[in-house]
């Protein structure tokens, strides 16, 4: 991917602001959310969906594999592939129906477990936690995209901090 952005997220507000910037620029496509357990992938997704207008709870799809949302004509599918034993299970659950949906935003947590059954990402987001056992620990975000407008907006946010 052409652009790479990195930032320390020292507060929930930072996470919320970055998610809002991304939501403004990306409402469709395939996104990979990468990070260890507790890194903040679902929290990041919640802020993203709230920025798109979702007002209800955003729960982790750890046990259901996918949580669907529909917001202002956007079909959003939030996947958590952590418990996936074999990528072929995605084919059995009808992954093609999700991938081929009109106006779709597909958010994949643990995308490495999806193998070739999931499409390539247009946006990669990596979240890392700096401290081990503290939920309020500072996060580190690394993002890769080909979206020049998104990259510029993120740089402007960073410069304004």
Automatic annotation (TrEMBL):
Q: Which GO terms describe its biological process?
A: tRNA threonylcarbamoyladenosine modification
Q: Which GO terms describe its cellular component?
A: cytoplasm
- Give the highest taxon in the source lineage: Bacteria
Q: Which UniProt keywords apply?
A: ATP-binding, Cytoplasm, Magnesium, Metal-binding, Nucleotide-binding, Transferase, tRNA processing
What GO MF annotations does this protein's record show?
ATP binding; metal ion binding; transferase activity
* InterPro entries cross-referenced by the UniProt entry: P-loop_NTPase, T6A_TsaE
Q: What is its main location?
A: cytoplasm
Localisation: Cytoplasm
**Similarity-based family:** Belongs to the TsaE family.
PANTHER family annotated for this entry?
Answer: TRNA THREONYLCARBAMOYLADENOSINE BIOSYNTHESIS PROTEIN TSAE
> What's the name of the protein?
tRNA threonylcarbamoyladenosine biosynthesis protein TsaE
